[in-house]
Amino acid sequence: MDDDVTHGTAPLWPQPVLDLLARDPDRPVFEDGDRVVAAGQMLEAVARAVAGLRAAGVGPGVGVALDLGVSPEAFAVTVGSFAVGARVCAVPPLLTPQHRTDLLSRADVALVVDEDRLADLLSCPPVTSVVAAGQPAGVARVTWTSGTSGRPKGCVESYAAMSAAWAAHPDRWPPAVAALAPRLQRYLVFGTLGSQVMLEYGVLTLAAGGVLVAARPPGFPDALTRHRATASVITVGRLHQLVRAQREHPRDLSTLRALIVSGSPLEPVRLAEALDVLGPVVFHGYGQTETGMIAMATPDEMLADPAVLASVGRPPAAVEVRVDDGELWVRTGAQAQGYWDDPQESADVFVDGWVRTRDLGDVDPAGYVHLRGRARDVVIVDAQLVHAGAVERVLAQDPAVAEAYVTGRPDDTTGEAVHAWVVPAAGRTPDPGALRAHVARVLGARAVPRTVSVVDGVPLAPSGKPDKSALQPAEVIA
User: Fold this and answer.
1) Would you say residue 364 lies in a domain?
2) Is 171 contained in some domain?
3) 449 Cβ partners below 8 Å, 6+ apart?
4) What sequence ranges are listed for the domain AMP-dependent synthetase/ligase (predicted)?
5) Exposure string over 323-353, b if 16+ CB within 10 A, otherwise e
């Protein structure tokens, strides 16, 4: 391999993906309805995307925003954007118009690629060869949050960090991933390939010899059966729904071999139930945007030792985990380096080469990681962080609200759900429906409280501070 596409001993991202596509041109790699795209066809599409991006002035260090769903074309443009060395920003779905405008103004992008722009990019004659052109120290990806903190936040990864990741390299796979990889013959993809998790396991699928299958339309369990999927990523809320659906109206899930659970914590009892109902297919992991995968437990581990159900698995050798004052800290070569245009938050989270997870936990003698709580006030809704403080501030903007308090509770639909309590201003009566609508406008649908309770006051802890843990949600609003 040429020196200009290596970083130390590691091939520069995304060269491993380009090499995978070139190795067996006739092998199917992407299925979208009746369309089956072979590796050689995908590589040609990447070459067309590279030509189109270069014609638009995109090269090393230039910002590109990808506002795309799931399709062979979206995959080609995603890989092509990395191949030209761009700074790739994926636009999260379900952003409010205000947050989308804010993100694009802050992201410093020269080109926004949406579904309408795909055809133009891919209509260019392909370049003769595609070689990774990024700079190891350059920014490869800015992964943006959904804005439920009050403003989208961008997590910055370098090309060196993405090159250090394990997905494209079978010789680097940790044991849990090596157990998962053979189950990825037909990996169901949905939502957006801009999702860090969706793309990572997509690359793992290609390295394992599998095919990416676009969910048309998405939804469990129908998409699993319709596409004969062997694997997919699933949030905790969707896992609960799938288990319930299988109990009430069993479907033929005989092709299913792996569900990779992401998002909010999964209680041991519910995890055991999922293994019982769905079979030995549930891989329970823990990770963050800032670090990638931190730990994973395989179904075989959990079935062999029920104590493992209370953990989130063991870290691979390339991931260091330490506990400092009850908080988990992580260090890995593939971690992010900071937050885009946010030096204060970067300094708080990225410290001396380590990443503060802001999760409380410990590591048992067998090396399994256990989560015990959170050092920050967040709710994980459909695998997305919702910051309680941001919701409280928006609720308190209403003149009828004197005080607002927000917390999360387990939820079978979304993993966790936001619940709110408001204390009326003197002589005023808050309207829960109006408050929920206001949160939706400002912060987006994920941040909307499942319930809004009007209370006279909030219990106090011995410290004299409000004790939100003592608050109980009202009846859920449909």
Assistant:
1) yes
2) no
3) 391, 395, 406, 417, 418, 419, 420, 435, 436, 439
4) 22-340
5) eeeebbbbebebbbbbbbebeeebeebbeee
Range(s) of the domain holding residue 450: 379-470
Summarize pLDDT for 92-131 with one digit per residue, the tens: 888 888 888 989 999 999 999 999 999 999 999 999 999 9
In a domain, 170, yes or no: no
Taking only the tens place, the pLDDT of each residue in 28-52 is 999 999 999 999 999 999 999 999 9
Question: Are residues 289 and 242 part of one domain?
Answer: yes
| DSSP letter, residue 91 | P
- Please state the domain count of the chain: 3
The one-letter code for the residue type at 386 is V
End-of-domain residue from the set 113, 130, 164: 164
Strand pairing report for 401-411 and 415-424: antiparallel
* Tally of residues, the chain: 478
Report the 10 Å Cβ neighbour count for 125. 9
Name the CA dihedral angle for 422, 428, 432, 433, rounded to a multiple of 10 degrees: -150
Q: Is the pTM of this model over 0.70?
A: yes
- Tell how many helices (H) and how many strands (E) occur in the chain: 15, 26
Q: What is the CATH number of the domain that holds 146?
A: 3.40.50.980
